[in-house]
UniProtKB/TrEMBL annotation:
This is Uncharacterized protein. It comes from the Archaea.
Length: 320
């Protein structure tokens, strides 16, 4: 409870009884943004037991001109209807922040079919939600998850119910030019190693995982492709180990004329006295940034903001 209170208020507290915790939470100045943060925190604690911020980034391609007012119209129909039945509830809930960004969630209904002991089929319905943020100035949609199921579910609903057309912000399997340089520029934002006390920047300790994809492979053409020792085409290779960023074998796949690109990278980052795992992904399905492996929510949030800023500055493939 102390951790949850600190995460949503930024203040430390110690509770020896439930009544003390209840009184402290009742004194919180609740608004819609804090309530959304509270729900997200509870979900993370229940499901993961650690602080984790996961964001998937999409460029808004169409329409040519977007505004907060336009987005409000798009998200107001269909709006989430808690009084409706079944999937008729499904829709958007949102709030407009002071900077004009939209913070909201797509609320959906899952229907599970169960078989009773009597042989009867009994449907069970449960509500779920996927949070998102839209920045109209940056033409950016952020889905607050890196779960493939969540992202695909939200993406399908946006496609079916709105006139917004969007695409992954950093798809290096399609936009291959300068892909390696972009990732190197992203990593260069971090201090090399543990920073000194007077440096308020995160430090890159090591890169643990690099996953590569061969963009020249055509699944319909099995001839003239690299093969492994078993005669199978190599479309993906994953390297894992201690500080493999400059490994000779990894670098041999990333020359100027090489069709191989980095589609996933995991790095160990030092920030505010704690170690974090930062993961980035750059594929045709989703491009994302994730910060995890810490119990310090404030530091996780700060580091995630930096990862987002550097991701969009260096890894985004379109100039919107």
């Amino acid at each position: 409870m102390e951790r949850l209170y600190r995460n949503i208020t930024g203040e430390s507290a110690e509770f020896s009884t439930f009544d003390e915790a209840e009184e402290a939470f009742l004194d919180v100045d609740w608004d819609d943004n804090i309530l959304l943060e509270f729900v997200d925190q509870v979900k993370q604690i229940v499901e993961k037991g650690e602080n984790r911020i996961s964001e998937t980034y999409f460029d808004i391609i169409e329409p040519d001109s977007i505004s907060t007012a336009f987005l409000e119209r798009e998200l107001s129909d269909p709006a989430y209807d808690p009084d409706a039945e079944g999937e008729e509830k499904d829709g958007f809930e949102y709030q407009v922040a002071d900077n004009g960004n939209i913070r909201g969630r797509y609320v959906y209904t899952d229907v599970t079919t169960n078989l009773t002991f009597n042989g009867e089929i009994q449907p069970t319905m449960s509500d779920g939600f996927i949070q998102f943020e839209i920045d109209p100035d940056k033409r950016l949609l952020i889905i607050k998850s890196t779960s493939v199921i969540d992202v695909q579910k939200a993406r399908k609903y946006f496609n079916n119910k709105t006139s917004i057309d969007f695409a992954p912000a950093a798809d290096y399997t399609t936009h291959t030019d300068g892909a390696v340089d972009r990732i190197n520029n992203f990593l260069a934002e971090f201090h090399d190693g543990i920073p000194s006390d007077d440096q308020d920047v995160p430090g890159l300790l090591q890169v643990d995982t690099i996953k590569l994809e061969d963009t020249s492979v055509d699944s319909s053409d099995e001839e003239d492709e690299d093969e492994d020792d078993n005669g199978q085409q190599l479309e993906n290779i994953q390297f894992e180990g201690h500080d493999i960023k400059n490994d000779d074998e990894v670098q041999s796949y990333l020359g100027d004329d090489s069709p191989w690109v980095i589609k996933k990278l995991e790095a160990e980052i030092y920030y505010e006295g704690d170690n974090f795992k930062v993961t980035i992904g750059t594929t045709s399905m989703m491009s994302y940034g994730k910060v995890s492996d810490s119990t310090d929510w404030q530091a996780t949030s700060e580091l995630s903001s930096m990862v987002r800023e550097w991701f969009l500055e260096h890894l985004r493939v379109r100039d919107l």
